[in-house]
Design a protein that fits this description.
heterodimer; A: 272 residues; mainly alpha; MetI-like fold; 2 domains; globular; B: 289 residues; two-stranded antiparallel ribbon; 12 helices
């Protein structure tokens, strides 16, 4: 493209980006404005910022404990899903049989499964086993959703490692497990980090399963903030502060995995 | 490598867990769908295909299915056009591409419920930013979330806001993988930018475009969080998608059997659509690219 087109293009792109981010910026403004400023018409742009509502929501209204719940669920999911998925991914990346590719594509087909169909039996099982409002059911549900994705994503990292590396290690006297553990696994460390981050984001953002499987003791952040909603204007400042806080980990996540976003996205990491 | 024995050992733990947390629940749901099963009452009676036939003869099922198709269709089309335009703009841009794509990507990673709340503060009557601004210009705004037509519009816009970044990023990556020599040759031959787009870029992108449309179609049937927060399916059933309807039956009315049947029907619809898309891709694959 010709250089003289660059400036209008950049202006257009910046404008679009700004409009795209208005909802988030508006939420940020509500969270740091006094209500009197927040709801004046036309909206005021000059005001004295306050962090009062951020303090109130995280400390006084217990969002901090919901954050802990979210982290326990996300952590538990990573601890089960990533090791299992990594092992399977290695197996699949190094097997060329027909069964292996059948397995891979049936994992992809699981993506078609409507999650609500899975949510029903999880709810019934949780009720039957009195496991509603415990972490374990929620973690298992997240593993179920996560496992196919974890395998596909990790497999893509293993495929990038040349088979000769395994072969060389095995010629040097390693057995299959030692070749995997001491030689191949260390080379895919970045892949492990990226996969863990994606799994974490998925569990952290999950709403439907959290809505039906968690209760007052294990409530995660999305459920907590949904209860405040956006309707009642008296709660706007507080829920805006909560919403902005909840948004921070995904934002940090995006910056961390920038280079691997495409890979993760096409395998279905982030969902609606 | 001849030995496949140890390789299966690597896969075994994962396969076991998948069987336990994915296949067992899935088949239980299919099993429930053939029973009159209310949570809370002890009596579970075999219903045969009753749950299915009742749903298929019910008006609300067809309304929610229609809503789902309408909302998904409009928003996927809108996202595709916007995402493609943005991807092309980023491709043509030489500075700040990384920052711009990162910033535009944020709506996609923000926790969906939180995104829904942010959007609600745009559209909510009177105090929302949109209404406040419009009233400031003496324009009387419509009821974005309360009028059936506008509520559909708002939900489509919300879904677009959330998923446009996904299409932008995947299509941008596709553009970058291009052979620039071809574009260069066409440009030297005097092709206008529109001709480049229409005759070279779009045909080359077709497989990728079909791929992302397939992915979005599959995901769209899971669309729940944003609508739940924005309209909860209202007003009436104007924005009620099939997932929200299943939620109502399963978790509000606790009719597990009927909800499972609805879930199975959804799966059948999704599978048929995906099969159609794959068929379309393979057929096109033989002739066009």
């Amino acid at each position: 493209m010709k250089p003289r087109h660059q400036i209008p293009l950049l202006v257009l792109l910046s404008l679009f980006t700004f409009i795209n981010l208005v909802p988030i910026l508006w939420g940020l403004l509500i969270s740091i404005k006094q209500p009197a400023d927040a709801f004046s018409i036309p909206p005021t742009l000059i005001f004295e910022p306050t962090l009062l509502f951020h303090w109130e929501v995280w400390v006084e209204r217990g969002f901090f404990s919901f954050l802990i719940n979210s982290l326990i669920v996300a952590g538990g999911t990573i601890c089960i899903s990533v090791p299992l998925g990594t092992l399977a991914a290695y197996g699949l990346a190094r097997t060329k049989t027909k069964h292996a590719s059948t397995l891979l594509f049936s994992l992809l087909a699981i993506r078609m499964l409507p999650q609500i169909l899975l949510a029903i039996p999880f709810f019934v099982m949780a009720r039957y086993l009195s496991l509603i409002d415990t972490y374990i059911m929620m973690i298992l549900a997240m593993v179920a959703i996560n496992q196919p994705f974890t395998i596909w994503l990790m497999r893509s990292f293993f495929v990038d490692v040349p088979v000769e590396l395994d072969e060389a290690a095995m010629i040097d006297g390693c057995n299959r497990w030692q070749a995997f553990w001491h030689v191949v696994l260390p080379t895919v460390r970045p892949g492990l980090a990226v996969t863990s981050l994606f799994s974490m984001l998925l569990a952290y953002n999950e709403f439907l399963f959290a809505l039906i499987l968690t209760g007052s003791r294990t409530k995660t952040l999305p459920v907590a903030i949904a209860e405040y909603g956006g309707e009642d204007i008296n709660y706007w400042s507080i829920s805006a502060a909560g919403a902005i806080g909840i948004m921070l980990p995904p934002v940090i996540f995006t910056i961390l995995v920038q280079r691997h976003l495409i890979r993760g996205l096409t395998f279905g990491a982030v969902k609606g | 490598m001849g030995e496949s024995g140890p390789m299966w050992l690597f896969m075994a733990p994962s396969v076991l867990v998948i069987a336990l947390v994915l296949f067992y629940p899935f088949f239980s749901a299919v099993y429930y769908s053939f029973f009159n099963y209310y949570l809370g009452s002890q009596a579970i009676t075999f219903a045969g295909l009753d749950n299915y036939t009742n749903l298929l003869s019910e008006e609300r099922f067809w309304i929610t299915l229609g809503n789902t198709f309408f909302i998904v269709g409009c928003s996927v089309a809108l996202q595709l056009v916007l995402g493609l335009a943005l991807a092309l703009a980023l491709y043509a841009c030489t500075r700040g591409v990384r920052l711009i794509s990162l910033l535009n990507f944020l709506p996609h990673v923000v926790t969906p419920v939180v995104g829904g709340i942010f959007l609600k503060w745009m559209f909510v009557g009177r105090w929302g930013l949109l209404d406040a601004t419009l009233i400031g210009f003496n324009i009387f705004p419509p009821d974005w979330l309360g009028d059936p037509g506008w509520a559909k519009f708002t939900v489509i816009l919300a879904d677009t806001w959330k998923f446009m970044p996904f299409l932008m990023l995947v299509l941008y990556a596709g553009l970058q993988a291009f052979d620039t020599a071809l574009l260069e040759a066409a440009r030297i031959d005097g092709a206008s930018p529109w001709q480049l787009l229409w005759y070279i870029i779009l045909p080359m992108m077709k497989p990728l475009i079909l791929f992302v449309v397939a992915i979005r179609t599959m995901d769209a049937f899971r669309f729940f969080d944003l609508i739940y927060v924005l309209t909860n399916g209202g007003p009436g059933t104007a924005t009620e998608t099939i997932t929200l309807y299943t939620y109502q039956i399963g978790f509000r009315l606790l009719e597990v059997g009927r909800a499972s049947a609805l879930g199975v029907l959804t799966l059948i619809v999704v599978a048929m659509m995906v099969a159609g898309l794959i068929w379309f891709m393979q057929r096109r694959g033989r002739e066009a690219f």
